[in-house]
């Protein structure tokens, strides 16, 4: 991390901040000077994150919330404006794996739940904070996708379909922002050492994978005011 705090004075909302990539983003953004709104379902994990960020001199506000509570997402933009007066950055990171199964065998409730978290919640999130991003000097929207979205992999139909839908939604939103100062992008992290990855590949040695912390530079680059990338799906090098 550079000595200069690239996100000084920014307010950033990060979903799925309890664990994995979202947690790493929240910590890095705080270290870069942002005031982080950390959204997640696991209250205990959020409180640990709060302790760690504050111990390092960072600023964080915890937002324990299940993203399928759509009414609360709808009200989030107004609540953020009331408390902070602005929102500069949103990172839509939260996702669930769902069920790895043949398409014809996927449980219907599991399908609906996975779609709800991975796609519908991000749609509601965009709709809720859109005006705030447009009002910001340099609004930034970053969403986390997966290489599975572009591959017809057996047993991955549910997760892949939700990520493909997310990509279409976010890239369309990016096109709509072409005449604004808002930059909208997706990040495809690749294989990362997370609990979701472990659930999908139980026989894999996690020590052979990169840590979430190792790919944080790309998120800072996309969140910074000097970012010029827009409407892209970016894979960390």
UniProtKB/TrEMBL annotation:
Which UniProt keywords are listed? Oxidoreductase
The record's section on Pfam families has: adh_short
At the top level of its lineage, which domain of life is listed? Answer: Bacteria
GO MF terms listed in the record are: oxidoreductase activity
Q: Which PANTHER family match?
A: ALCOHOL DEHYDROGENASE (PTHR42901:SF1)
Into which family does the record put it?
Answer: Belongs to the short-chain dehydrogenases/reductases (SDR) family.
Protein name listed in UniProt: Oxidoreductase
């Amino acid at each position: 991390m550079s000595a200069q705090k690239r996100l000084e004075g920014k307010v950033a909302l990060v979903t799925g901040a309890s664990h994995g990539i979202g947690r790493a983003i929240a910590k890095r953004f705080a270290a870069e000077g942002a005031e982080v709104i950390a959204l997640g379902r696991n209250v205990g994990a959020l409180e640990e994150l709060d302790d760690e960020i504050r111990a390092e001199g960072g600023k964080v506000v915890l937002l324990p919330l299940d993203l399928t509570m759509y009414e609360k997402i709808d009200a989030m933009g107004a609540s953020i404006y009331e408390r902070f007066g602005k929102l500069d950055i949103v990172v839509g990171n939260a996702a669930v794996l769902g069920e790895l199964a043949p398409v014809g065998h996927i449980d219907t409730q599991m399908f609906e739940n996975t779609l709800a978290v991975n796609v519908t919640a991000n749609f509601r999130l965009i709709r809720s904070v859109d005006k705030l991003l447009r009002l910001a000097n340099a609004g930034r929207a970053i969403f986390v996708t997966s290489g599975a979205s572009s591959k017809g992999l057996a047993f991955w139909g549910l997760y892949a379909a939700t990520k493909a839908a997310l990509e279409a939604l976010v890239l369309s939103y990016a096109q709509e922002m072409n005449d604004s100062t808002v930059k909208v992008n997706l990040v495809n992290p690749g294989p990362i050492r997370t609990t979701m990855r472990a659930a999908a590949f139980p026989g894999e040695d996690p020590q052979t994978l990169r840590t979430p912390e190792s790919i944080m530079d790309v998120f800072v680059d996309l969140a910074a005011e000097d970012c010029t990338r827009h409407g892209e799906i970016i894979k960390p090098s």
